[in-house]
Model the fold of this input.
Amino acid sequence: MANKSVIKLTGISKSFAGVKALQDIDLDIREGEVRCLAGGNGCGKSTVIKIISGFYKPDKGTIEINGKQYSHLNPQQAIDLGIQVIYQDFSVFPNLTVAENIALSAERLDGKKFVNWKRVRERAQEALDMINVNLDLDAILSELPVASKQLVAICRSLLQNARLLILDEPTTALTKNEVKSLFKVIKDLQAKGISILFVSHKIEEVYELAKELTIFRNGKKVIEGSLQEFDRKKFVYYMTGREIETVKFKPEHIGEQPLFEVQNIGIKDLFKDVSFQLYPGEILGITGLLGSGRSELAKALLNLERITEGKIILEGKELTATSVKGMIDAGIAYVPEDRLTEGLFMPQTISRNMIAAVIERNLNKLTLIDDAGVRERSEKWVEELKVKTPSTELPVQALSGGNQQKVVIAKWLATNPKVLILNSPTVGIDVGAKADIYDYTRMLAGRGMGIIIISDDIPEVVDNCNRVLVMKKGRITDELSTDGLEEDTLSDILIDANKEAATK
Amino acid sequence: MANNTEQKKRVNFLKGFTEDASLMRLFFIMVVAFILMTIITKGKFVTGANISSMATQFPEIGILAIAVSITMLLGGINLSVVGIANLSGVFCCLTIIKLEPSIGTWPAIFIGLMVALVCGLVCGFLNGLLIAYIGIPAMLATLGSQEIFMGLGIGVTEGAAVFGTPDAFTFVGAGKFLGIPGPLVVFMIVVVIFTILLQKKKYGMELYLSGTSPKAARFSGIKNQKVIIMTHVLSGVLSSVAGIIIASRANSAKASYGSSYVLQCLIVAILGGINPNGGFGKVSGVVMAILTLQFLSSGFNMLRVDSYFKTFIWGALLVGAMILNYYGDRISENRKRRNAEKAIEKES
Done:
């Protein structure tokens, strides 16, 4: 460890609205090192990235770069100091060409007033050569596969003199072969003296790539060291803080008659010919990559998007309501993907959020809002779902992610649904709250509710559903029982690993 | 457990205090303005004549301010309130003049009032349609419709004031009920109705939620478009009520009356704690704001202060109140956060 530090964080803390996202974090990344940063959802990984890239200002602590101390950075400073982050969405311009995407920001950085197109192409080619990759310079980004977009984003950062490259869960949407070539690129970069911070929670990848490991949990650094010292068990233990024994969901009792059924439903250009049945007591998983139509399907089930063909049937009767409210009243509840904008009214109180979907069921005889009743019922939900809050009259934004999600779930359970659809229910929430939510959904299934979990989190689907549907390009392509299903098998099906191997 | 409930109580109490903190501040400002004016005018301020004159002056702007406020709760605005008020006033007077000879004074007045209210309703509905279905931002839609309503009024009256309504028509604007000036009675009725509508009815809850986040509202099954239309219809009807008061007080109507009222309404709404981003604010705040401004205006009037100085004071008060709200909210935010932190730490 003779190499000098590229960046050194000391005692960094940051909280949001009463939730401690980071507590007293030290992190030292050295020249030419590939360090893995691991941790579950909501452990503070993304917060620390955003502090390094100058997006957030830490509450406490210092950042040291090149021997200089900073209390915080701003985004431009971070770029000037050679810090580059490749986010999950890559932040590329889909309507521009490869050359433009790679070279334009570097040109801007040089303070050029006019664009020299010849130079743009030269520089772009230079950057691609650096990582030994061939791409058509004139291809429009939106037409390229995900992996190529990622490479473009990496090239762009190289041209901005990256000394530290941060990759935020870079392999999520890649096939196995693509992951391999990405790793080769990363190793080439390392050989050129660029440091890499590789953020991931996939243990196999981490072993293949990194030598150093840092694990965060609940905003604290729990352990750090050379990867050789970790075996799989130890890794998982530190990541989750407990010897997690996941018990697979086994439905207690599945009804005879289907509770909910869709027949050949579709929305033009989004998804087509989707049919499935849901039995009472079941937890049905629907998985698919981003853009597979899974979210659009979910929204269609609540009339947030209108289906253009097919039928939706609940308890043997076709649902003909054309409004969202009609679906809610029929007994369908939908916990949306993005709780911050779709699920919650952030500055409003917890109790107001909880009655938002069924205000009319909270009126007294004079059709006035029954405040006492509302408070009573909200307090009951808070207790039942173990929402950590001192009062139901606090704004929802004062709660942590997991507790916010519980409020969303309570809001939908207050509608007294027969079918509960959860879209990505545990994104960005801590392990404890996650377990609470899983337990609760199992309990609801046990009571005979039909539950659909839509998620691209493979372990979540495999462990919590008894059946899973795979969606690709707007169609359901596979139906699997999760009994004895390996996570890797599902993951391969999801990203077409077999097909890829077959075409090779 | 006992400890827990005690803590709950304390937080509830705190919450009540902090949520209404801006109303408390407003109340304080209002009382100070009242006392200050009483002292400066050496007591002339609290004479019956002055109080009665104030009570006839502020209701029309107060009602218009509530009309603007409810659209602001949606995160929108209504810049056409004065246009609607004048147009309603003009139609009201024209109807009365036209019908009086054939059906008598009181029936004509009754029909005139109805025509005015329907005019407000239609204008509001039009605003709502432009915003909810055509998707024009409220500011532009109502800025445009303000010109339409005013132009229409000027066209109908050829720009002249409409005279010739019977004296009986002044019963609203200049009359008294049980010794209370008519405009004040109307204002009190409006305040009571809208307080209930906003705080206790399903519509009010939908208004606050939709104003906070139309997207989350849609996902909750709230029909945003319906809420927008309803709100602008109510705003239009309120404007026409103000229009009736104005016409009745002057016993005439003019299409271009009170063009400075729109800005004053905005000042009142903002000072009253209506959040221009939508979702927060109460009628009671607007009431206190209009009272404060009326105290200042009347007081300065008595002192024969230049009217430019009055404008200056209104502006200064608005900016001052916003600064006070900013710091006050920060303090209460921090306190809330600390409470939440403590509570969570205790539990975990």
Remarks:
- Confidence is low (pLDDT under 50) at residues 1-18 of chain B.
- The longest helix of chain B spans residues 307-347.
- The longest strand of chain B covers residues 176-177.
- Residues 215 and 224 of chain B are 9 Å apart (CA to CA).
